[in-house]
Amino acid sequence: MKVQFQGKEVNIKKIGILTGGGDCAGHNAVIYGLLRRINQANHTLPKEEQMELWGLLEGWKSLTRNPETEKDKIMVKLTTTDLKDSYKVSGTIIQSSRTNLFSKANLEAKAPEKAMENVKKLGLDCLVVLGGDDTLGAAGKLGKQFTFPMFGAPKTMDNDVFGTERTYGFDSAVEESVHFIENIMTTVRSHKRCFVIELMGRHAGWVALYAGIAGGADLVLLPEEVVDIRQVIKKVEKAMAFQGYCTIVVSEGAHLFSKSYPQDVNDSNKKLLDEVLADSKYALVKARHSLPKKLDSFGNEQLGGIGEYIFSILEKHTKGIEYRLQNCGHAIRGGRAHVSDRILGLRFGDAIFDFMLDGKFGTYPGLEANQIVPRDLLEVKGGAFIPEDNQLFKMKDAVDFY
Ligand code: F6P
């Protein structure tokens, strides 16, 4: 299809699409949304302008492979048959990886240059990159550095990408989390226990906030707040006294210590944790506590484990309460793609085609007041945290209303 790119007419025929970072619901829907428009346009385009959509396998990793010797591992041509059912499930049919072309080692190895040489060798005229801020940021840089037609779409269960009021993947993760919490809740009530349930979401507490409230948790602990364990203990005791059981949802990014916390909170959290670590009953917690933090290729810390600290501190410092710990892990990122993520993914895919028609390259669709707006890939960033004045923030702890 002939379109305008940087003041020149280009004929975009072979489009590559990739998914980077953690998988989520809606990736397949974006691919399908775009493919539908390509198919529709092909009916009226002359043969020499007809388009194909090719899935680049395992995200940016595909472009680090050798097109001469590893072609099968690099890309597959996509058809509507591939997508017809898969847009209803989470994950990505073209696989993903956390490959960072701009890591120090990859920059030294000239990975961005090699990736773009490979794009040429593969005959691709345009790239569509689906991912969070890291993946989209790389697309922006490559598009600019190599003057190449690029688009993106903002995914992530964490809902923490700037420029859009919703990322696809979030709603499904919330729905799955609520399902998880409610299943646990039957045991919570039957056995009159206190459960600590940890949910992913990185440094943004959106999933925990929505799922905790919707799932009926008594207490929700977020990365965006000061977690004062003395207050947590009081709230747990209040819930136990009121109803005989308690459910605490904790976001994996919540923390016990922070430079931004008042000193007395840091000190008292430390004292309570130190007493746990000194107790041989919690030798495993101590062992895990002493392990170095793991980083992914973008330098993001691998989270997970705050639930265990909260669980052990509560168990150690309260009396007569039976505790259990449950980390939902990746289960909430997978399974069904819920309706709103199917719709949002399809809308994003559809919008990318419109952006291409309008020559709006270097952009990704964002959602603003539920309308699609083009956002600049070079301006993408993460860290869209829950603002303090968010209405749900003060509603989050059901125990405050007992
Ligand atoms: O960014 C999405 C996310 O699911 C985070 O919530 C979580 O911390 C991380 O990915 C887990 O990454 P991985 O799948 O690489 O373990």
TrEMBL record:
Q: Which Gene Ontology molecular-function terms are recorded?
A: 6-phosphofructokinase activity; AMP binding; ATP binding; fructose-6-phosphate binding; identical protein binding; metal ion binding; monosaccharide binding
- What GO biological process terms are annotated to this protein in UniProt? canonical glycolysis; fructose 1,6-bisphosphate metabolic process; fructose 6-phosphate metabolic process
Record's superkingdom?
Bacteria
Q: Which cofactor does it need?
A: Mg(2+)
The answer, when asked if Secreted is one of the entry's keywords, is no
Q: Which organism is it from?
A: candidate division WOR-1 bacterium RIFOXYC2_FULL_41_25
Tell me the route in metabolism or biology where this protein functions: Carbohydrate degradation; glycolysis; D-glyceraldehyde 3-phosphate and glycerone phosphate from D-glucose: step 3/4
Keyword Magnesium (UniProt): yes
Q: Which residues form the Phosphofructokinase domain?
A: 14-355
Task: Check the record and name the Gene3D superfamilies matching this protein.
Answer: 3.40.50.450, Phosphofructokinase domain
Q: Which GO terms describe its cellular component?
A: 6-phosphofructokinase complex
For this entry, the protein name equals Phosphofructokinase domain-containing protein
Q: Which UniProt keywords apply?
A: Cytoplasm, Glycolysis, Kinase, Magnesium, Metal-binding, Transferase
Describe the family membership recorded for this protein in Swiss-Prot or TrEMBL: Belongs to the phosphofructokinase type A (PFKA) family.
Xref: Pfam families:
PFK
